Each structure stands twice: as structure tokens, then as C-alpha cells.
Amino acid sequence: MGCVFVCLCSHWLIGTLVSYGDMPLEIAYGIYSLMVLSLALYYGFFCFFISYAKQKWGTSYYMTAPALMVFLEWIRGYNPVGFPWNNLGYSLYNQTVLIQIADITSVYGLTYWIILTNCALYEIFFEKIHQKYNYNPLIAVLCFFLLFMGYGVYRTNEKTQFKPVTIAVLQGNIGIDKKWDPEFRDRIIDIYKDLTEAAADPDVDLIVWPEASLPVKLKNNYKLQNAIFDLAHETRKYLLIGSVDYDPKTGNSYNAAFLISPERKITNTYYKMRLVPFGEYVPWSRIFFFIDKITDAYGDFYPGTNPAVMSIDNKFRASIFICYETVFPALLRKFAANGAQVLINITNDAWFGLTDAPYQHFSFLTFRAIENRVPIARSANTGISGFIDSSGHILEMTEIATKTLAKKTLFLDNRISFYCKYGDIFVYCCVGLLLYYYIRFKYHSRKSKSIN
């Protein structure tokens, strides 16, 4: 069942590896199968453990299953190939009131409730205790639901917004087949120049280009660099631009974002910290040494180490996260904890084609906004671009596979969330709950042995 679940959530990866990763079909299926099997192991262990705990510890499923699933989803985010894309809580992304609890528990609190609900239904319909239904898990589900909804109503009705900022996001819709074509390079620059000029209204504070929107290294191409500087100066706007950067001292390449001021300066730089395995680097390269022999489509990037916070014309502070970093709540928490008032996501989802993936990718942002109580702006090469407020409301979504731009006034939020201050306390509580059941089992085992 674990394999089926993973395949249903990530079936689009095969097409991505073949069409955009330039891999032979057989190799793509091989890598995809390894990924599916490795992720299915989490669900296999989940089923084994809760059955073992029920038999040995005497615990019902609803006691251990929710806490264990939370722990497994959390630990998967720290595995280099863990791919924490399909956490169960994300399925509730459009239930805005219910998911406000994420500013305490992160997405894991919703995962806990989903598993608890399923365990309650199982207890009611498939198990009886002394010929009577066990309604305890159902009562627990209803209590959690009322708690989450009550908290959500309170949070969504708070009057905490202040200081508007206006951001424009660009969507050039450059296909992967043209993005790195030298003959199409000037056309790409013209597309983004035209979009920038169209977005440069007087009230706009920042104009955002997508991930790797420049087809060359910005710092290594002085002609292009001067053209971008001129554009920022002429429009009198701050530009945030995705590009590749190269450090000649170390020989390292980075997936980067540059903040360019109207004064013709690069005022800040962010290097992507969580890279895509087999896309931007090869994990465990000694094992997967053959990858570079079958395709040259993957990047050879190094991760950044600084969760930068950038000042935008002394009006507000923003942090940038790039593409896949969307699925790491602990990483984005660092940005907010360092003082970011707005989070900006730049991405190139052209790799996914016309599949479910761009919609899945965008939906995760509702949780990142709620967790940190910050609004989010997103610029995606082929879509979906858009805006989300600090309560997780989707304010605007662009159409996929279209050239467009979007502008929105976002309101900064003066709330500091529990999750932003204290991190994954809820996960630690779940681990503590599992330890409690284990210690209780050991205590009763020793007690029964001493009596005998």
C-alpha cells in the first residue's frame, strides 16, 4: 500500500526524468522505483510498528498511529532523499480555518488529526471491546476538531495586519527546450524586460523574477549585468532575480537569487540551501557514480549556508526560498525567526510539465504562511505564480503555462507564531508519547514478572 500511495502522489516524476532530465526510460524507471521503494519503507515500518505495539504494548491504534506518522513525516525531511512531498496534512490546504493550528504544530498537527480520525473509524466499525463499541477515539477526534476549529476562528478574525507592501511577480513561461538555447537567450531577456516595465507601477515595492530566469551567470556576464542594472535604475524598482552564481575561488556553482537596487547594485544574495537530489546534485555519489555517464541534465550545485534576510528599500524585510525548499517547514522557520516579514518563493516548475505537480507545489505554501504568520509571494517560470496572506488565504493564482504578471498588496503581520519561536515542539511531544507507551509497557511487564 505504501508503494501505491507514493506512486499516486508522485507519478509525474517519470515524465520529468525522461522529458526534462534527458534520461533513458529504463534508467528513469529504475531511479523512480528506488525512490518509491525507499519512501514506501516508511509506511511499511508504520504498519509493522503499530501492529507490534498493539500486540506487545496493549495500545490501540489510535494511541500510537498518529504520533508515529508525525515522527516519520518529520524524520523524512532530514533524509537527503526523503522527499517530504506527500505529507498527509497537505491534503487539507484549502480548509483555511481548520489548518490555523499549523502556527503551533506545523503541518504535522493536521497529519495527526487525519490519522486519528481514520483510527477512530476503524475502532468503531471493525473492533469491539466486550461486545461494545469503543467511542473513546471518536471523542478524541471530535475534541481535536472543535479545538482546531475554535482556534482557527479566533486566529482568522484577529485584527493584526499593518503596513501594506506591493509586490509584482513575473511569469515568463519559458519552456525547458528554449531556456538554455543560446539562440533564444536574447529573447528571454527581452521577455523579462518587457514584463518588468509593465509591472513597474509607482506603488510597486519589489519586482520578482523566477528561479534561474537568466539563461547565463549574472555575475560573469558584465554586458547582461549592466543591462539589468540599467533596468532597475530606469524603473526605480528593486529587482529580485534568480540566476546561477559561480565562485571562481572554490569552483562551486550555486542556485542563487540576487537583489538589485535602483542604485545599480547587487545589495544581497541568497544561495539555495536544500538542493533537489538527482536534479541539482547527486547524493551518495560513490553509490550513484554512473549518473553523470547517462545524462548531463542534472546540476552540480553546492548548497548555501546563510538564511539571508534582505531589506527592501528599508520598507520591509524579505527572505527568499527557491523551488523545492517549499517542503521544509524548519528551513522557512529560520527565515521568519531571523526577522523576515515576507517570504518570497521563486521556482521553475517547467520541469513538471502539465501535471499535478505545480498545483501540489503551490498548495504547500498555505502552510508555510500560517506556520510563520507571514505573507508569501511566488514567481514561477511557467506557473503557478501567486500570493498568499499570513492566514493562509490564497489571494491570487496565475494560470499555468501562460506568460503573465501579477501584482498584489500584501499586509505585514505583527504576530510571532508559536512555531516560529519554538519549532517542532509538537513533534517532540509525539515522540514523548511513544516513549511513554513503551515505558508503561516495560513497567507493567516487570511488575507482572515480579508478581509471578
From TrEMBL:
Q: Where is this chain's protein located in or outside the cell?
A: Cell membrane
Record-annotated CN hydrolase domain positions? 170-418
Q: Care to name a GO molecular-function term for this sequence?
A: N-acyltransferase activity
Where is it mostly found?
Answer: membrane
Output the InterPro entries linked to this UniProt entry: Apolipo_AcylTrfase, C-N_Hydrolase, C-N_Hydrolase_sf, LNT_N
Tell me the Gene Ontology biological-process terms attached to this UniProt entry: lipoprotein biosynthetic process
The protein's Enzyme Commission number: 2.3.1.269
Does the keyword field hold Cell membrane?
yes
Q: How does it sit in the membrane?
A: Multi-pass membrane protein
Pathway assignment reads: Protein modification; lipoprotein biosynthesis (N-acyl transfer)
Q: Name one Pfam family in it.
A: LNT_N
Any one GO CC term of the record: plasma membrane
- TM region positions: 29-53, 97-121, 133-154, 422-439
Q: Which UniProt keywords apply?
A: Acyltransferase, Cell membrane, Lipoprotein, Membrane, Transferase, Transmembrane, Transmembrane helix
What does it do? Catalyzes the phospholipid dependent N-acylation of the N-terminal cysteine of apolipoprotein, the last step in lipoprotein maturation.
- Family classification: Belongs to the CN hydrolase family. Apolipoprotein N-acyltransferase subfamily.
Protein name (Swiss-Prot/TrEMBL): Apolipoprotein N-acyltransferase
